[in-house]
Amino acid sequence: MRNLLLYIALAFSMTGRAQMTDSIPTPLCVERGDSVAIDTVAVDTVPKKKNNIFRKMYNFVNKCFSPQRDLRYIDVQDYYNWCGMMQVSTRFEVVQLDADEKFLLRVSPRPRTRVGPFFGWRFAFFGYNIDLKSIFINSEDTDLSGSIYSAAFGLDLFYRRVGGNFNINKLKVNGMDMSQYLKGQPFDGIHMAMTRVCFNYIFNYKHYSQQAAFSQTHRQLISAGSPIVGIQYAHNKSDINWQALTQKMNEISGTTFDNESLSGEQYNDEISLSGGYGYNWVFAKNWIFGMEATGSVGYLIQHTHTEYTPDSQRSGLFGDIEGALRKNIALGGTLRLALIYNSGPIFTGLQSVGFYYQHGNGVMMTRDLIASVYALVGINF
């Protein structure tokens, strides 16, 4: 009987303990293994913070500029946000203006050494070239450039104003070569202006890095290449002072040239489509040799009114085709080369960029070949 009473008392005691345990508030029930459910409920009850418009814009831009890439091929160097660089450059240029067999003038500006400080933040890279010979003298030359490089696309901006420092290389008038009289003579009667915006898309951006070769913000780890397509807009303007040229020619050679039939002013807008290929060759640790070659074909919107009169041997259909090419079609090409050493925080190397532009006004054609060589050193931080 005594044992039975003990069993009953023990049973009531355990039942009461169980009831007390079930009545314990939920946050203290971690002993029963309910922690996952408790965490979920706690998170769901906390109101989420909504991103403001600036955060949404930043996330969108970051997604566009930094899509997923194959990290076996490209070191994106996300641990660096800023880039500073100093470069020394020398530019060579040849400009040719011609009007069929009637006239041909080829000039070159005097080569000058430029120093360019550049600064970048992640995707954008801007700089300014300072002509060392023009710091303390008046010069009409202005050369501004800016580039935005991302994994999938690139944007190049150019603003050039050139004039007043040309030397004559070749001059032909009505089939007569006058170069022997004027070769090497200075001529300040040509003024050229160009404003150009170029947009390029890289197809194989997961493996090929344009930034590794031309902005040094990424590193190419394994050799790779990619097709490149793009669209360009340009505002072109050039002008030649015929009176100054004929006066110089007549004074030196003793001849007389009638220039009334030629129009030396070109003023047009250009819309072009481009395509090409780029390749980065990783030939040693931290070293790459990069190359990009593209060509473009564009349509010219003229702001000067001139009429092209072809020679008799190219009259009819061929004359009409040549007239259209001279007035409405623009051609261009770009070749970029880079030899870069990039260890991550420090980079140095050589670059070379060549541009060819051809456009006209229906009578006069302008052909401009520009080649620049750069030596650079910089840091990522």
Keywords:
alpha+beta, twelve-stranded antiparallel barrel, two-stranded antiparallel ribbon, 7 helices, disordered N terminus
Describe the structure.
The chain is α+β, with helices and mostly antiparallel strands. It is built from seven helices and 19 strands. The chain has helices at 2-22, 35-45, 53-65, 179-182, 210-214, 242-253, 317-328, and strands spanning 74-75, 82-99, 103-109, 113-121, 124-128, 130-131, 142-149, 153-163, 166-173, 176-177, 186-187, 190-202, 219-220, 224-240, 265-284, 287-302, 329-342, 346-360, 365-380. The strands form two sheets. Strands 2-4-5-7-8-12-14-15-16-17-18-19 form a twelve-stranded antiparallel barrel. Strands 1-13 form a two-stranded antiparallel ribbon. The longest helix is centred in the first third of the chain and has 21 residues, at 2-22.
